[in-house]
Design a protein that fits this description.
The protein has 759 residues and is of the alpha+beta class. The chain is 20% helix and 33% strand. The protein has 14 helices and 48 strands. The strands form 14 sheets. The chain has an eight-stranded parallel barrel, surrounded by five helices. A six-stranded antiparallel sheet has the order 4-5-15-7-11-10, with helices on one face. The chain has a six-stranded mixed sheet with strand order 30-35-45-48-34-31, with no helix packed on it. A hairpin with a 2-residue loop joins β38 and β39. The chain is globular, with a radius of gyration of 32 Å. The chain starts with a strand and ends with a strand.
């Protein structure tokens, strides 16, 4: 699949962006508070916030360097602000007003005229005209003074080398202590009528538009809660993603919180007091849904059983037999909600209904995904089936590990737990369908955990039979650990097994390809995109890249072209016509002869490229009719096909390579002495593979003649193969000349074919 990992914009298309464009501000804040930035109108920036502690402070940020957009779509770096002036109307409620101590302050971080790192603190009230909660603010960056009271506290600001600037927001009860506020405080700020003038008022911005292609994209609120929806959707649209966006609401930013305990023992736990979702989350997702609908996107609202551990009620958590909670490997860790806990499941149902309601309110069709529901397994494969609610509902016996053999009582425990998991997902989907009977439902499952051969009990526990169709409208699969490890065979077998087990054919499946956790591993996009191509070949209805934040970070550009698979018809040239083909292998060699008669030969091709002429096989009118039909179907030279070389079509016990204890992928080849020829079109059913002389069937054949062994061969072990093969070729010319010789006889003087290089 054609792709590119861009690192910078060089010659690509650009446009102009007004500096301080409302779409390009971000927010930041300490947890547990929450804030979100949206754009109700083209010249408006709105920030909604909820404060829980007396030291909570949110920043509305403008950065001189674009760290967030795709490299081809970001704005240019410009640190000098002296030639621009910013104006806006400030309106606020529920935050410290402009005229108060610790009121909104513009912090400017950068370097002074001497190059020394420093920060300036500009009180916005000093540049405001109007009321403390409704004023016109003008900031001339060429004549700006920091300080609380001017001119007494004047500190001239040099804005010629600025890294970033941000406006601070605090609650009315702010006093810099970590104590809880008397009650959670919701507030908002709007900067409207934003205008900028001066020579520095505009920036160049990337304006690449990738043609719409066949991949969709997933998004994650936990990864880009701090950006505006308008900014994210611009990136998705201009990178060519269309159709539905699979939007995971995450596990750490959507909920309301309430205080439990007092003083240093205060904990902030998820709550439904005052609503289900926090106000910034509602505002952000309403803006996302509205803009998605305008751009022709659909949204699949994805919700999992995962919740940030520090904010989860203790009795909601899945637990191992020793009482330890289920904890993921994230930092800070998340936990998993128990499917048997009524309050936890009621909470998830309320969240799901609230999210889908936002989409429906924006005019989107209701779509809801239950994301990766499972009973957690600890690192040593202990199932977390022993929280109080699970003990009461399941009466579980002790299961020290799912790695080994289990007795009848332990298997019965797994069956009861699986049934309880299925009931919880059914109730979750039913809660949404209770509001919107037409809601399309999706089940997302993660194959490497469910089908881990080292943990055979995982499948019985976390793949309930009650998930079988038509429990959900769509089955979605992901398997990124297999993909990035090169276990393509496991991917193919896993998808087939789960699809057959649950009764979802390929056309009722969707596939999530990804993801790349760390920027240093951006090379993993190659196998991820290959896995997406494999999913296309097995006929899934849609494929999503997981996820947009990593696509932007790594500069991934994907485009849909007529690649080797699309431009090749996997059909054999009519065998009778090809048996008498003339065969002419050729090389490209430049020969230079010196004045003294000595030659220098430069070989341009490492392998021969063979030309064929199948004209001699055409002898009758029936042959001509067959040839013409085949030629038209291939559109002349446009599409490749298979040809059986009458002199070279078998390989026997060919050494493909030797094991190193890690490599599992080996390309099919034939050998001619020291010369090697890649084989990309083996004949189905003829491939036999051996490792260290022992035949094996534990392998998968990938497209273009690559085998992937289930297990990496030991160091030094020879991997050999025997197979029949065809040669990929195309017609060499745009015209085909045939003649009728006599009654029922015909001929084609020449029908040249040329070999295709596919690998």
């Amino acid at each position: 699949m054609p792709y590119w990992l861009a690192t910078a914009r060089v010659e690509q298309a650009t446009d102009w962006l007004t500096r301080f464009d409302p779409r390009y501000w971000t927010v930041n804040f300490p947890r547990p508070m929450m804030a979100a930035a949206t754009n109700p109108a083209p010249d408006v920036l709105r920030v909604d916030a909820v404060f829980y502690r007396r030291d909570d402070l949110a920043g509305i940020i403008w950065e001189s360097v674009d760290h967030h957009d795709h490299p081809l779509l970001g704005y240019d770096t410009a640190r000098d602000y002296r030639a621009c002036r910013l104006r806006f109307r400030w309106r606020s409620s529920g935050v410290r007003a402009l005229d108060q101590v610790d009121g909104p302050t513009l912090t400017i971080e950068g370097r002074d005229a001497a190059g020394q790192v420093r920060a300036w603190y500009v009180r916005l009230w000093n540049y405001a005209k109007g009321a403390p909660e409704d004023a016109e603010v003008t900031l001339d960056f060429a004549a700006l003074d920091a300080g609380y009271a001017l001119p007494a506290d004047r500190d001239s600001v040099w804005t010629g080398d600025v890294d970033r600037m941000f406006v601070s927001l605090v609650a009315p009860g702010y006093d810099r202590s970590a104590a809880p506020l008397d009650a959670p405080a919701e507030g908002w700020v709007e900067l409207s009528g934003i205008t900028v003038d001066g020579a520095g008022a505009v920036l160049a911005i990337g304006d690449v538009v990738v043609p719409a292609h066949d991949l969709r994209v997933a998004s994650g609120y936990d990864d880009h809660y701090h950006l505006t929806p308008a900014r994210l959707l611009r990136n998705a649209l201009q990178l060519g993603y269309r159709g539905a966006i699979d939007h995971y609401v995450g596990m750490s930013h959507y909920f309301r919180l309430e205080a439990a305990g007092a003083g240093a023992e205060t904990r902030w736990l998820v709550s439904r007091r005052g609503g289900t979702l926090n106000a910034p989350c509602v505002a952000w997702h309403a803006d996302l849904a509205r803009r998605a609908a305008q751009l022709g996107y659909e949204l699949i609202w994805s919700l999992s059983y995962e919740l940030l551990d520090r904010h989860c009620w203790d009795d909601w958590k899945q637990r191992a037999a020793d009482g330890t909670p289920a904890l993921t490997g994230w930092d800070p860790p998340s936990t998993l909600l128990s499917p048997t806990h009524a309050a936890a499941m009621d909470y998830l149902q309320a969240v799901a209904r609230a999210l889908v309601a936002i989409g429906v309110g924006a005019g989107l069709a209701p779509r809801f995904q239950v994301g990766e529901p499972w009973w957690w397994l600890t690192a040593d494969a202990r199932p977390c089936l022993y929280d109080a609610s699970a003990r009461a509902a399941l009466q579980p016996v002790a299961i020290p590990s799912l790695r080994g053999a289990l007795d009848a009582a332990q298997l019965a425990t797994l069956d009861r737990a699986a049934a309880a998991l299925a009931r919880s997902t059914a109730a979750l989907a039913a809660a949404v369908r209770g509001d919107w009977p037409e809601c399309v439902t999706y089940l997302l499952i993660y194959l490497p955990t469910l089908l881990d051969p080292a943990v055979p009990g995982a499948r019985r526990l976390n793949l309930p039979n009650d998930w079988a169709a038509p429990a959900f409208d769509w089955l979605q699969l992901e398997d990124y650990d297999w993909v990035t490890a090169g276990a393509t065979g496991a991917s193919e077998r896993g998808a087939a097994l789960v699809g057959a087990t649950l009764g979802y054919p390929a056309e009722r499946q969707e596939y999530l390809a990804g993801f790349v956790l760390r920027a240093d591993d951006r090379g993993e996009w190659a196998p991820i995109l290959a896995a997406a191509a494999a999913a296309r070949r097995r006929g899934v209805a849609a494929r999503y890249l997981w996820a947009l934040p990593q696509v932007l970070r790594d500069g991934l550009v994907y485009w849909q072209g007529e690649d080797e698979m699309d431009a090749f018809d996997d059909v054999l040239f009519p065998l009778a016509l090809g048996r008498e083909a003339e065969v002419a292998p050729g090389f490209s060699t430049a020969v230079t002869t010196s004045a003294g008669g000595h030659e220098t030969r430069t070989v341009a091709w490492a392998e021969a490229r063979t030309r064929y002429d199948v004209g001699p096989g055409v002898r009758s009118e029936a042959d001509i009719a067959l040839l013409l039909a085949f030629y038209r179907a291939r559109q002349g030279p446009a599409r490749g096909f298979r040809l059986r070389d009458p002199f070279d079509w078998q390989a026997r016990d060919v050494t493909l390579g030797h094991g190193d204890g890690a490599t599992r992928r080996f390309a099919l080849v034939t050998r001619y002495g020291d010369a090697t020829r890649r084989i990309t079109r083996p004949v189905a059913g003829t491939l036999r593979v051996a490792v260290a002389g022992a035949a094996t069937v534990a392998f998968t054949l990938e497209p273009l003649g690559v085998i992937v062994l289930d297990d990496a061969p030991a160091a030094g072990a020879a991997v050999t193969a025997s197979f029949d093969f065809d040669v990929p070729v195309r017609f060499a010319e745009d015209r085909l000349s045939v003649v009728r010789a006599t009654y029922l006889a015909g001929s084609a003087h020449s029908v040249p074919l040329v070999e295709l290089r596919e690998a």
